[in-house]
Amino acid sequence: MLCPACGAAKPGSAAFCPSCGRVFTARACAPPAPPPLPSPLIVRSAVYGALALLVGGYGANLYSRYLDAERDRLDSSLLRQVVEHRQLVERTMAQIDAAQPGP
Ligand SMILES: [Zn+2]
Question: How many whole angstroms from 16 Cα to the centroid of ligand 1?
């Protein structure tokens, strides 16, 4: 491999040119990449993106309502679990109190 700046031979794993000090990056020695062509996937994504923008207002509203409902469901489920856990702790504490010999 040759240094792209000064043309000096460089060790393959060198991080910089021993002759001119140019820092090598992986890209510095690689041939320039051809400009990317739009792949069918990208074109399709763009079409779906445009469609999503068209229906986005309606969809976002719907999705937001779905998320609200889901959050309410999770909140009540979480609250129930907390209450149940607290009852369990209180029962356990009462059992421990009952099991301990009095002073
Ligand atoms: Zn160099």
Answer: 8
pLDDT at 3 > cutoff 70: yes
CA distance 4 to 20: 10
- pLDDT given at position 102: 66
CA of 29 to the centre of ligand 1 (A): 12
How would you class 5 by CB atoms within 10 Å of its CB: exposed for 0-12, middle for 13-18, buried for 19 or more? middle
How much distance in Å is there from the Cα of 40 to the middle of ligand 1? 41
pLDDT for the residue numbered 90: 93
Contact status, residue 30 vs residue 38, Cβ threshold 8 Å: no
C-alpha of residue 97 to centroid of ligand 1, in Å: 81
pLDDT digits (tens, 9 = 90+) for 73-102: 888 888 889 999 999 999 999 999 998 876
CA 73 and chain centroid, separation: 25
| C-alpha span between 76 and 5 (Å, rounded) | 66
